[in-house]
Amino acid sequence: MMERSARRINAPAFLSLPGVQAWIKDRAEMTIVASIKTKAMQQLPVPLPSIEEQRRMSDLLCALDSQIEAHHQVVAGGGTRARRTRDPADGECSLVR
Fold first, then answer.
1. What are 31-58's pLDDT values in tens digits?
2. For every residue of the chain, which 3-state class applies, written as one string?
């Protein structure tokens, strides 16, 4: 499924993909230096995972952040144990002490 998103992606890596390069090349206007119009680039399909898959990835990354925080606390000599959790209302991963 192709969707557009306001979130930023790793543009250099995405634009280097062979399929994306072929898409750009098909739409490029050949002059001395190949160029492509902004309007054509705005129509570039960007595949995104489903919202459910994005939430699963977010949960996983939040759990990893929690483990990283726990390791930082161990290295720092203890203190209160903190963990990260994703707020279902806004999807943000936040630190809970």
1. 677 788 889 889 999 999 999 999 999 9
2. CECCCCCCCCHHHHHCCHHHHHHHHHHCECCCCCECCHHHHHCCCCECCCHHHHHHHHHHHHHHHHHHHHHHHHHHCCCCCCEEEECCCCCCEEEEC
